[in-house]
User: Which sequence fits this backbone?
Protein backbone atom coordinates (compact mmCIF):
# COMPACT_ATOMS: atom_id res chain seq x y z
CA UNK A 1 0.00 0.00 0.00
CA UNK A 2 2.82 2.41 0.87
CA UNK A 3 4.49 1.69 -2.47
CA UNK A 4 1.26 2.39 -4.38
CA UNK A 5 0.78 5.65 -2.50
CA UNK A 6 4.39 6.66 -3.21
CA UNK A 7 4.00 5.95 -6.93
CA UNK A 8 0.76 7.95 -7.04
CA UNK A 9 2.36 10.93 -5.26
CA UNK A 10 5.35 10.90 -7.64
CA UNK A 11 3.00 10.78 -10.62
CA UNK A 12 1.01 13.74 -9.36
CA UNK A 13 4.17 15.73 -8.60
CA UNK A 14 5.77 15.10 -12.00
CA UNK A 15 2.61 15.88 -13.97
CA UNK A 16 2.30 19.19 -12.12
CA UNK A 17 5.94 20.00 -12.75
CA UNK A 18 5.58 19.28 -16.46
CA UNK A 19 2.53 21.55 -16.71
CA UNK A 20 4.46 24.66 -15.70
CA UNK A 21 6.55 26.82 -18.01
CA UNK A 22 9.69 27.87 -16.17
CA UNK A 23 11.91 30.71 -17.30
CA UNK A 24 14.49 29.15 -19.60
CA UNK A 25 16.72 32.15 -20.34
CA UNK A 26 16.95 35.93 -20.44
CA UNK A 27 18.79 38.66 -22.30
CA UNK A 28 20.70 40.11 -20.53
CA UNK A 29 21.47 36.83 -18.79
CA UNK A 30 20.87 36.46 -15.08
CA UNK A 31 23.73 38.06 -13.09
CA UNK A 32 25.44 39.30 -16.27
CA UNK A 33 27.37 42.56 -16.49
CA UNK A 34 26.73 44.58 -19.66
CA UNK A 35 28.20 47.82 -21.00
CA UNK A 36 24.78 49.35 -21.65
CA UNK A 37 21.15 48.47 -21.14
CA UNK A 38 19.63 47.03 -24.31
CA UNK A 39 16.43 48.64 -25.63
CA UNK A 40 14.50 45.54 -24.58
CA UNK A 41 14.83 42.62 -22.22
CA UNK A 42 14.07 39.17 -23.59
CA UNK A 43 12.48 36.44 -21.49
CA UNK A 44 12.24 32.92 -22.93
CA UNK A 45 10.06 30.35 -21.19
CA UNK A 46 10.09 26.58 -21.60
CA UNK A 47 6.40 26.69 -22.63
CA UNK A 48 3.65 29.22 -23.17
CA UNK A 49 2.82 31.69 -20.41
CA UNK A 50 0.81 34.91 -20.12
CA UNK A 51 2.82 37.49 -18.22
CA UNK A 52 0.62 39.55 -15.91
CA UNK A 53 3.28 41.85 -14.45
CA UNK A 54 6.94 42.60 -15.01
CA UNK A 55 8.58 45.11 -12.67
CA UNK A 56 12.03 46.65 -12.97
CA UNK A 57 13.97 48.03 -10.00
CA UNK A 58 17.21 49.98 -10.27
CA UNK A 59 19.39 50.93 -7.30
CA UNK A 60 17.35 53.22 -5.03
CA UNK A 61 14.60 53.91 -7.56
CA UNK A 62 11.14 52.47 -6.88
CA UNK A 63 10.02 49.56 -9.04
CA UNK A 64 8.38 50.47 -12.36
CA UNK A 65 5.98 48.22 -14.22
CA UNK A 66 7.07 47.43 -17.76
CA UNK A 67 4.51 47.74 -20.57
CA UNK A 68 2.94 44.40 -21.52
CA UNK A 69 0.07 45.86 -23.59
CA UNK A 70 1.50 44.67 -26.91
CA UNK A 71 1.39 41.01 -25.81
CA UNK A 72 -1.80 39.01 -26.16
CA UNK A 73 -2.47 35.47 -25.04
CA UNK A 74 -0.03 32.75 -24.09
CA UNK A 75 3.43 32.81 -25.71
CA UNK A 76 6.87 31.50 -24.81
CA UNK A 77 9.09 34.45 -25.71
CA UNK A 78 8.77 38.09 -24.67
CA UNK A 79 10.84 41.08 -25.85
CA UNK A 80 9.84 43.90 -23.50
CA UNK A 81 10.97 47.50 -24.13
CA UNK A 82 12.87 49.15 -21.28
CA UNK A 83 14.16 52.64 -20.52
CA UNK A 84 17.65 53.01 -19.12
CA UNK A 85 17.98 54.33 -15.59
CA UNK A 86 21.77 54.51 -15.81
CA UNK A 87 24.55 52.31 -14.47
CA UNK A 88 23.95 49.92 -11.61
CA UNK A 89 22.06 46.81 -10.63
CA UNK A 90 18.73 46.08 -12.34
CA UNK A 91 16.31 43.55 -10.86
CA UNK A 92 13.46 42.21 -13.00
CA UNK A 93 10.58 40.56 -11.14
CA UNK A 94 7.84 38.81 -13.12
CA UNK A 95 4.49 37.13 -12.54
CA UNK A 96 2.49 35.10 -14.98
CA UNK A 97 -0.10 32.46 -15.61
CA UNK A 98 0.68 29.09 -17.19
CA UNK A 99 -1.67 27.48 -19.69
CA UNK A 100 -2.67 25.03 -16.94
CA UNK A 101 -3.93 27.92 -14.78
CA UNK A 102 -1.09 27.90 -12.26
CA UNK A 103 0.48 31.18 -11.24
CA UNK A 104 4.22 31.51 -11.59
CA UNK A 105 6.75 34.14 -10.61
CA UNK A 106 10.44 34.74 -10.52
CA UNK A 107 13.20 37.26 -10.88
CA UNK A 108 16.58 37.83 -12.44
CA UNK A 109 19.16 40.59 -12.24
CA UNK A 110 21.99 42.10 -14.20
CA UNK A 111 24.40 45.01 -13.86
CA UNK A 112 24.99 47.89 -16.28
CA UNK A 113 28.48 49.39 -16.05
Assistant:
Amino acid sequence: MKQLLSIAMIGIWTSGALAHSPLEGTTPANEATVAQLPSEIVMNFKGDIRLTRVGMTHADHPSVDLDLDSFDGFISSYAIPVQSLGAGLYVIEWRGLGTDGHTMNGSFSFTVE
Observations:
- The chain is about 15% helix and 50% strand.
- The longest helix spans residues 2-19.
